[in-house]
Amino acid sequence: MKPSRAISRLVEIMAALRDPETGCPWDLEQDFATIAPYTVEEAYEVADAIERDDAVDLKEELGDLLLQVVYHAQLAEERGLFGFDDVVEAITRKMIRRHPHVFGDAEARSARSAKGQWERIKAEEKAERQKLRETSTTSRLSGEADAFLPAEAGPRHLDGVPAALPALTLSLKIQKKAAAVGFDWDCPEPILAKIEEELGELSEAVAGRDADATEAEMGDLLFSVVNLARYHGVDPEKALRRCVRKFRDRFGFIEAGLAANGRTLEVASLDEMEALWVAAKTAG
């Protein structure tokens, strides 16, 4: 089998890897749950290549991410749920439907700024997906029987936020959605007070050597910090990544400074590293 620019070749390769008789033993052992962490990791590596402004790596990482889509589609096809072509059809339908001001008729184009149009379309799509679940033999990846909430219960307001998002991003999105219905502070002072309160409770948990309480209070503190970031229009995930990048660069400065003097991280004293850390901060 030869490489190709056609997406169909990638689909063929994935099918060959999953062939029960001649496929790859490792690939044959995988399922949705075991592949999901790789999918998340590849998405992060795409973001990392963009952040590093590396076009060569971006091309490679986009391919790895595309493979993840094909992989999940292959698993679904094997279970009779859907195939890669169905995935493509679903996203093309969605993009056309959500952009009537681009793909619609003259009337739709003139209504491009119609209030609530985007949310109305999304609500319609959500209702259609729910109807499809109810009319399908199964919509579960595990193949188990479907289970639904009682009709009177209905969906909860925050259920639409994917729980698998990184914790900082998940916190931000949850808070934004709660704020959209008025559950929010209108000034930063109460948020700062909440952060101090949570910090005090964390100190008490640490002093009491209560591991479970320490974890819980640490979560409360981080959630409150995300709230403050949101109020000031700061993406906490981006802010923390910026901080980590800065720390990595400064630590690299320490390592290089030690090496210039024939020293290593393993033998250097904390005072030596601290002096180089200050120098790194001064250097910017």
Automatic annotation (TrEMBL):
Residues 30-103, 189-250 form the NTP pyrophosphohydrolase MazG-like domain. The lineage of its organism: Bacteria, Pseudomonadati, Pseudomonadota, Alphaproteobacteria, Hyphomicrobiales. It comes from Jiella endophytica. One of its GO terms (biological process) is UTP catabolic process. InterPro entries: MazG-like_dom (IPR004518), NTP-PPase_MazG-like_C (IPR048011), NTP-PPase_MazG-like_N (IPR048015), NTP_PyrPHydrolase_MazG (IPR011551). The keyword Ion transport does not apply. Belongs to the nucleoside triphosphate pyrophosphohydrolase family. Residues 117-134 have a biased composition (Basic and acidic residues). Its EC number is 3.6.1.8. This is Nucleoside triphosphate pyrophosphohydrolase. GO terms for molecular function: ATP diphosphatase activity.
